[in-house]
Amino acid sequence: MEEEAARCFLGRFVEDFPAALEEGSPLPVSPLSRRVSLEELHGESLELGLRLLAARGAPAGLSTLLCQAALSQLLQDDLSPFHCAQEAEANQEDEPQVALLQSDTVQRLFLNKLIDLALAWHQKLPELPPSRVLQCSVHAIKNTRRKMEDKHLALAEFNQLFGIQDGVERAYYGVFDGHGGVDAATYTATHLHVALSQQQTLQSDAAAAFKSAFTRTDDMFRSKAKRERLRSGTTGVAVLIQGQELTVAWLGDSQVILVREGHAVTLMDPHKPDREDEKQRIEDLGGCITFMGCWRVNGTYAVSRAIGDFDQKPYVSGDADCSTVQLLGGEDYVLLACDGFFDAVRPSEVPQLVLDALQQPADPEAGGNTLPELSEDAIGQRVAQQLVAHAKAAGSSDNITVMLVFLRPPKQLLAQHSSSGSAQATQDSTSQDAAQK
């Protein structure tokens, strides 16, 4: 992360927030919840801080360091003055009472710690560790649905956000497709990566860490759903790039594919009710699969695994599947997307669609490839936009979210393809000349 960008941002930020927020004044960003448990405070505070800083154009690396430092200070304080009354919890059967905190007041304290840090860092900027730069292209649309129930998270600075200093670079990405409301998707996007960071097996066995993190997130959401009477669920797919290892974890029918040297590599098999092993698992539990426009679990949900959907647990399982592959150096990108994309686009189509998007001129009316006129970020960002547009044109009516994580720069991918294409054309021409002779 460049120090110049950090200093410029801090200069602007302290102009907007020259002092701590006064008691009773409105918060500059709204908390996700009215009440949170101490365990939920981690994710909700980090989400709140990152949202505030991103809205003001903060460099991502600086944002994660500020939020991590502010949260560390917050958790050292005595938070008992922020506890809510327990009356509502007393009515919950078979659920131990959990101390809940009033979000507005405890998050004001968190934001004031973040502001104090920004003021101090503006005067003397600490040494900033280098950030891992992986370009990420994301686009999401509501499409023809009444509500947008997808959520996503791109976190290239995973270690910095959680203060992990073990020398292993990590980046995290996730796409979550909610149904029956957005609550489960929002909750998972807020807490799954936090739960993952707390797993002792993170470095030695990322797949086991992911499975435990999904289970913990499902359990946490169950408690919230009970106390707030929420009825929703979410599928999800998440990726952790840890050193030269890529681990994928998923529930339901959101998917991820890896493209290596222009070819799609299958990393997973989505959980659908008509998948033979899923059908057998559900029937062994006493459930059934019925066709009602599509295959559904007990005539309800069209996915067989999800976070939430507690009215159909254990038939709709919260147990994630995982796979891990080694990155060999020839990987182009990783694509994560919800079923709104994959219902209209086959994984085998993705490499050509991405290449077409990269090759499209900046000004279609001008013709030709004007790629050099665009920045690397602009080139990458339009790829996700065009993939979403293609899925919509191909007939998808669902919410569509596409996230593309480039493992090599877009310009390099295009140059490599152009070089390969020229070499192939020369080879074809040589073969034709030899045949004519």
UniProtKB/TrEMBL annotation:
InterPro entries: PP2C, PP2C_BS, PPM-type-like_dom_sf, PPM-type_phosphatase-like_dom. It catalyses: O-phospho-L-threonyl-[protein] + H2O = L-threonyl-[protein] + phosphate; O-phospho-L-seryl-[protein] + H2O = L-seryl-[protein] + phosphate. Transmembrane segments: none annotated. It is found in: Cytoplasm; Nucleus. Pfam families: PP2C (PF00481). It comes from the Eukaryota. Keywords: Cytoplasm, Hydrolase, Magnesium, Manganese, Metal-binding, Nucleus, Phosphoprotein, Protein phosphatase, Repeat. Residues 135-407 form the PPM-type phosphatase domain. Heterotrimer. Interacts with PAX1 and ARHGEF6 (or ARHGEF7). Belongs to the PP2C family. This is Protein phosphatase 1E. It comes from Scomber scombrus.
